[in-house]
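In practice, a research group might receive sequence data for several interacting partners and want a quick structural hypothesis before committing to experiments. The following worked case mirrors that situation: the sequences arrive first, and a predicted assembly follows.
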Amino acid sequence: MTAPPGERDHLGDRRLSRREEIIWYGVAAVTYVAASIVEKGLLNWIVGPLWLVAVVWGGPALVDRLRGRR
Amino acid sequence: MSWAAHQFEVYAVQAHLPKKMRGKVSFWAIWLGDSTPDLLSKFWVYGITIGGRRYGASVPQQWHRGWPGMGFTHTLFAGLVIAGAFWLWRRNRAFTVGYLLGYAAHALTDVNDSVGTMLLFPFSTINWTLETWAYAATKSGGKYLDAAAYYSSLGLVMDLFWMVVVLGSWRVLTREHWRTSVVPADPHVWSWLGRFLPERALLALYRATFFYGLCRMTAWSTWSHLIARPEIDGVTRRGYPFDLSWTGPYWLEARSLPHVSPYIVLPATLGLLAVVYWSASRLWEPMGRRDRTVATEG
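A structural hypothesis for the assembly, expressed as tokens:
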């Protein structure tokens, strides 16, 4: 199953819906806050932004792969 | 010092640019300008411990905000010098103005802690402070005590204030704003990043500083008040106590340096902020006539 062409960005990756954005940003925030309370070394201006980018970039891709969707 | 406020103020600056500058001032320059003061000085404030020995400033507040010390990094003068040097080098007003506005935001908002900044450097090396909350970076307490003090005092209110300012201008965080106002001002940077990152990652990268500020505010506040077990006045407590009184919290001695009367600091700070914005606005068109990138794009 593939996404319609209009939902693709300049690299051919699927764009997220508003609902998906909220979910993945929420996942990033909850996991980052939880992890950084335990390990405060994670609270820095490099790890924080990278955490968000990694979750928002990789999370949907992983879910799509598990669902057999491109 | 301020914590998440410095992340939020980047978006506050982005959201409140003069109308003629919208879509033309570099977001990355605002971010870099706001980050520079602490990038240059904060590493030595808490110090590092190697083999049981601490290497760091013997008087953190003097190093961080004083003269002699690295206090000049938290002055408008330093922001002007660096921005001016960049202009002479690249003639790029998008970056120069963004950098200066970001730098000014950091230097001016840091007057709130009990150490403040040297607003009139190099003409004067005396600090200007509103003493709103205690500057709490110490040799023994390090980052943990500093965070606990900040998030138990009006410092937390400062972070929440700037968060509300950004959320009140929530469109600055939208995909639409990023596409129409952020990307056009930094086309080469976003184009280069876009060679490797999909759009959702690029957008996340733009929002990441706000995300980081929100999360660090939440994490440190949670740790300070729900998890930490400090001993204060001989009593072990469940969490550090809140103290929203001026120059709080009461359970820590506020660090300070020689400073002017706090009563003149707010009008002076607001006046300097107005001067920075007015100057940037007046110089915008003349800079545009000299801007190599504008000339290139016709």
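Before designing any experiment, note the following. DSSP finds two helices and no strands in chain A. Chain A touches chain B through 25 residues (CB under 8 Å).
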